[in-house]
Backbone:
């Protein structure tokens, strides 16, 4: 791939994305078979994959019973919880950043241009949604507030947790 060869870069990105989505059938098959001598190795590999292991653990749990099923579900939960903590930590760091987020590149003429947002605004909206999935937070209502009102909402969120 040559310098500034965007077509090749896009093709490579598509290939990587396609390969990254291949299910980990072999690992959950190894875990599902109770008499498998390589079961411990499969568990070790799957644990090392962190958030990519959630689905294989859950698929494995469907084929197991009793304590093994509970252990598989626990491993899926552990991997998901670790991912959620990393996301939460990243978003909380963003709450202190006041940099403007560049607006999305819109190829066509639009009736209304998107409102400018700051990193902290986007982090607040994402954290609010993660912490309150059943309570809709209207993005436009939040962004219609003046900067000090948004800063107050962000401070309130920081104090709650």
Residues:
């Amino acid at each position: 791939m040559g310098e500034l060869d965007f077509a090749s870069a896009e093709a490579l990105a598509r290939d990587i994305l396609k390969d990254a989505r291949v299910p980990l059938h072999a690992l959950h098959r190894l875990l599902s078979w109770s008499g498998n001598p390589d079961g411990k190795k499969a568990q070790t590999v799957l644990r090392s994959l962190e958030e990519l292991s959630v689905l294989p653990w859950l698929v494995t749990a469907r084929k197991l019973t009793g304590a093994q099923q509970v252990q598989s579900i626990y491993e899926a939960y552990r991997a998901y919880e670790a991912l959620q903590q990393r996301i939460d930590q990243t978003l909380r760091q963003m709450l202190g950043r006041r940099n403007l987020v560049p607006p999305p590149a819109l190829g066509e003429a639009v009736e209304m241009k998107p409102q400018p947002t700051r990193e902290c605004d986007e982090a607040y909206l994402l954290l609010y949604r993660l912490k309150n999935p059943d309570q809709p937070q209207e993005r436009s209502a939040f962004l219609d507030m003046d900067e000090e009102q948004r800063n107050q909402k962000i401070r309130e969120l920081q104090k709650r947790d």
Q: What stands out?
A: The CA atoms of residues 5 and 48 lie 34 Å apart. Residues 22-83 form one domain.
